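Marked as duplicate of an earlier ticket. Keeping the data here for the record.
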Amino acid sequence: MDLSIQQLRMLREVSAQGTIAAAANTLGYSPSAVSQQLSSIEKSTGVGVLERVGRTVQLTDAGRELVSHADVVLAELERAQASLERIQRRVAGTVRVGLSESMASRFLPPLLQQSAARFPDLVIRTEEFPSEADGVETVRSGQLDACFVMAITHAPVQEGIVFEPLFRDWFRIVVPEDSEWGVGRTEMHLSELAELPLVLAPRRVWCGRLIQQACRESGFTPNVAHEIDDYPATLRVVAAGAGAALVPDLGLAFEPQGVRVLNITNRFCRTVELAYRQSSATRPAISALVDLAATVAKDLGLDTID
């Protein structure tokens, strides 16, 4: 039996995603390439590892057994890589990182500057992910080494993924500068937004749902005038007088003229964490990334988590 690491990774991803197309998309291959590799597995082992059920596929008993061993093999391979990097005693190589738009606009530039100054042999490559769940799954599959995620809380380790808390990202109320809503004030209670038109993140994204929950806990359903999944655009719409908004500190990186930022009396936040595989936790490059992220959070004056 002759199986490659990539074939094992593909089989594991098909098991996780439920379809060949979804697995191919996560891993960055075409569906035909994944199908060919899975066929090669069956030829090599002499047993079927997949069976079709409608439009999806499911693993046979043999396929499930092979995936259980694939998890062990891939984790041990990563631990071996970490051991070799520790022997070299230097931070080097490439780390692939997922992040959101708000992290990219304010957090990424100083992170790259710090990395270049402190670890010149470390290369950070990034991809933007609109969904934290997508980012974590891509880390789990091995396509990414780490991903910045937003959450209320996570377990320290969850199904082989470590969640390293970095800082609390507090939400603020943003109103048009020339409106009467915030004149002479530095803070507002969230319930005071009940009758105002609001510019909010869509409910389909995690932050949108968090905002909806905070509003409900303050006793009202938000009057959403505009749903926008982009904080710079949201701020420009508020500056144009179209409504008030709820924006986290990271989203206030480039505050335009024409808005006033107020604190929230009954404040709420999201927690920013760095997710990475438990099997790569001892890699010097991952340890350096955690250290860099913590340093940047402190330098930016964010509410860091000790």
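See parent ticket for discussion. The CA atoms of residues 35 and 299 lie 48 Å apart.
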